Amino acid sequence: MAAGMVGYLALCAAFVVLAGSLAARGHHQWSVASRLVPLAGFEASTAPVLACTAGAGVGLLRLTAVTTRLAFEPVTR
Description:
It contains three helices and no strands. By secondary structure, the protein is mainly alpha-helical.
């Protein structure tokens, strides 16, 4: 349980960091969504274990979508 808690907090921290990066690049909708996903996960933490596991899975899918979008975005300097 402790490892799961640390892992989920790390996932939430990654969303907060990515939200700032997305906002700086002008992706405001993606930034707002990245800030809301951890809140939804904390709401699901009061639910049974299956719902928490599903919430963590959705969070990881969201993290994959954001990092994929950033990886294929053209770099402008």
